[in-house]
Write a structure and sequence with these properties.
CATH topology: Rossmann fold
CATH architecture: 3-Layer(aba) Sandwich
Order of helices and strands: EHHHEHEHEEHEHHHEE
Structural class: alpha/beta
Bound molecules: S-adenosylmethionine
Helix content: 40-55%
Strand order of the largest sheet: 1-4-3-2-5-6-8-7
Radius of gyration: 17 Å
CATH superfamily: Vaccinia Virus protein VP39
């Protein structure tokens, strides 16, 4: 456990507790399963860095929602060495791995343990980013989160979410799932890794992409766009005007 982490909440919902428990359990093996379980790994994460570079420069302040082991935060710090990054996550064990990963950036990183769907996000931030986390929140909760994210952004800031989305019909959802399984098996993912992924996926609450883009616009974001899409994997963003 991380003693230096600031625990921002004392009570969690049942669903948040489930997420916390399952990610604490899988934190140790998490990083080594990433490329196998995310077929479009490079363009998926790479699009986030590209979007940040296209819109921002200098010593930016970044919030990473559901930062986990710090994979995305590490990429942000590679692209923006002067950035300061706040990582928030329900799982202390995941953040413990993040602290190890980011040990060369101790001055630049802040860790918060808690549920970002119910915490004050703080800020203002120049960018709020997230990868593979917001899909754990059900539809209405996502829309409420988008409003909080909008409030926490500096005017001129950007929100970027790299995530998995639900198919817009049962048939499309079935294609997404079949395609993912074929690709992870072709990548040589073991039965044990697959079983761990399936256990984590029980906590998923994916929503269709169109609903999320509409929710961003309703929250006040402009230039809302999906930049990357590969079956269920999508990277979208919205800007808060100056
Ligand atoms: C699949 S991992 C992704 C981690 C990291 N962003 C990455 O790309 O590797 C999802 C993370 O989101 C966290 N998470 C899910 N819902 C959350 C919430 N409401 N508040 C804080 N963290 C949450 C989980 O604890 C987990 O560490």
């Amino acid at each position: 456990m991380i003693s230096s982490l600031k625990n921002i909440q004392s009570t969690l919902s049942d669903h948040a507790t489930t997420i916390q428990t399952v990610f604490n359990k899988h934190a140790q093996a998490y990083d080594q399963t990433r490329r196998g379980l995310i077929p479009p790994y490079d363009p998926f994460y790479g699009t986030v860095s590209q979007l940040l570079r296209a819109h921002l420069s200098g010593p930016i302040r970044v919030l990473d929602l559901g930062a986990g082991t710090g994979l995305l935060s590490g990429m942000v710090l590679s692209a923006f060495p002067d950035a300061s990054v706040t990582l928030i996550d329900l799982s202390e064990a995941m953040l413990e791995r993040a602290r190890e990963r980011l040990s060369d950036h101790v001055e630049a990183v802040t860790f918060r343990v808690g549920d970002y769907a119910h915490a004050s996000l703080g800020g203002p931030f120049d960018a709020i980013v997230s990868a593979l986390s917001i899909h754990h929140i059900a539809g209405e909760g996502k829309l409420a989160l988008f409003r909080q994210v909008f409030q926490a952004l500096q005017p001129g800031g950007i929100f970027i979410n790299a995530d998995q989305v639900a198919g817009s019909s049962p048939e499309i959802e079935a294609h997404y799932r079949k395609n993912w399984l074929e690709r992870v098996i072709a990548a040589g993912v073991t039965e044990e890794t697959l079983a761990g992924a399936r256990e984590r996926m029980l906590a998923d609450r994916m929503s269709p992409l169109a609903d999320q883009l509409r929710g961003l616009a309703e929250a006040g974001f402009t230039q809302v766009n999906c930049w990357f899409k590969d079956f269920s994997f999508a990277v979208y963003s919205g800007r808060k005007l100056d």
